[in-house]
Each structure stands twice: as C-alpha cells, then as structure tokens.
Design goal:
- The structure is a single chain.
- With 217 residues, the protein is mainly α.
- It has two domains: 119 residues, Orthogonal Bundle (Rna Polymerase Sigma Factor, Chain: A), CATH 1.10.1740; 91 residues, Arc Repressor Mutant, subunit A.
- The chain contains eight helices and no strands.
- Helix 2 crosses helix 3 and helix 6 packs across helix 8.
- It is globular, with a radius of gyration of 20 Å.
- About 9% of the residues have low confidence.
C-alpha cells in the first residue's frame, strides 16, 4: 500500500489498527509538526519551555493517541478528511494541558482526578495571574447561564473551541457530533458573543449604580 496516497481520515483509521508501523511512519511524517507546535504552545502557556519538557510532552500526546485501542483515532470514522488536522490539534492541546495539570497536582502532593477530555471539552491553560483568572471565571459563569437549553453543551463547546482554541467555524462544523453547518456554527458564536456582551454591560451598569449610591450617602 502507498500510505502517502491515503487521505487524512483513511490514514488515521489505519493507524488505529494493531501493529501498523508503516501507517504510523506516514502519520508522523504528516502530523508531527502539528503535534510539536501544539505541545510548544501549551508548554509556553504553562511557563515550561525547556526542550526536554517538550519532548516528554510530545511523547504523552502520542500515548494519548494510542491509548485504549487508539480510541481517539477511531473517532475519525464519521469525520471528514478536512476535519482531521483540527481534531488532532484539539487532542494534542487537551493532552498537553492534562499533562501539566497532573504535574501540578503531583507537586501539591495530590493525585489529579480530572479525566482526559474529549475534543468537545477543549479548555485553555491556567491564566497567568489572578485578575485574568477572575475574568475567565466571570465569562464562564455567563456562558453557563446563557446555554441552559437542550443544546447548551454543544453551544458551550463551539464557543470555547472558537475563542480559546482559535478554531474557525468551518473546522468546528466539520467535527463529529456538532451537527451544524458553517453558518449554523457562526450563528451560535454570534448569538453567545452578543449575549455575553449584553450581560457584561448590564453588570457594569449595576456596579456603577451601586457606587453612585454609596458615594451619595
């Protein structure tokens, strides 16, 4: 078989089969730069830029791809070939964040109990300072309040994949389980962005009113 002729979806499904070293060789040739870039980006966010640390992180990402009978790769069965690079990026980013969270928990003397996230639970790294942490928590609280209906989990995932992972509406729409067109994904992002801005504005107005009342007393 000429592995170079396989499209992305066909290749990673071949990699999911046992003992397919030739397929993995082609996989590494195509996607190692993507995985290395994701590892480097997350390592910088966590303040871990050492070469040895990145090498360990890249190894952890490959282990995630191979874990549980290559379950992460088997998810490609209902995915388009165009969606594969974006999917691999999300898996790599999530694996990298979990790696650093586990290290941080170990340093604190406890075990990390947070499971490896699927692509739809993509998350950003811990913010570098308390002020940014508070802002992110505030935004998450608003997002949760604005997504309480039947498709709330899907809409939260779309919003976070777009703003935190930098994925386009086209990339998100191509991922398994989303079930929306590109226009549908764009509509979700626009609707939630508007609602969050409106709630932030309302909160700012309320705080200003309280401050004015306090100053007049």
């Amino acid at each position: 078989m000429n592995w170079a002729e396989l499209d992305a979806r066909e290749l990673i499904l071949e990699c999911a089969k046992p003992d397919n070293a030739a397929a993995w060789s082609e996989f590494i040739s195509r996607y190692h730069p993507l995985i290395r870039a994701a590892a480097s980006t997350v390592a910088r966010r966590w303040g871990q830029g050492a070469l040895g640390e990145r090498d360990d992180l890249i190894q952890e990402i490959y282990l995630k791809l191979c874990a549980h009978g290559a379950r992460a790769l088997q998810s490609a069965h209902d995915m388009t070939a165009d969606a594969v690079p974006a999917y691999l990026k999300v898996v790599a980013v999530n694996a990298a964040h979990d790696y650093f969270r586990a290290r941080a928990a170990h340093r604190r003397g406890g075990a990390s109990t947070e499971p490896m996230s699927d692509w739809h639970e993509a998350r950003a790294a811990a913010p570098p300072n308390m002020e940014e942490r508070v802002v992110l928590r505030q935004l998450d609280d608003i997002l949760d309040r604005q997504t309480q209906l039947e498709n709330g989990a899907r809409d939260r995932a779309i919003f976070r994949l777009h703003y935190r992972e930098g994925m386009t509406a086209k990339e998100i729409a191509a991922m398994p389980g989303v079930g929306l067109s590109i226009k549908g994904v764009e509509a979700v992002i626009h609707r939630l962005t508007v609602r969050i801005h409106e709630e932030l504005a309302a909160q700012g107005t309320a705080r200003s009113g309280r401050h004015s009342e306090a100053g007049s007393q």
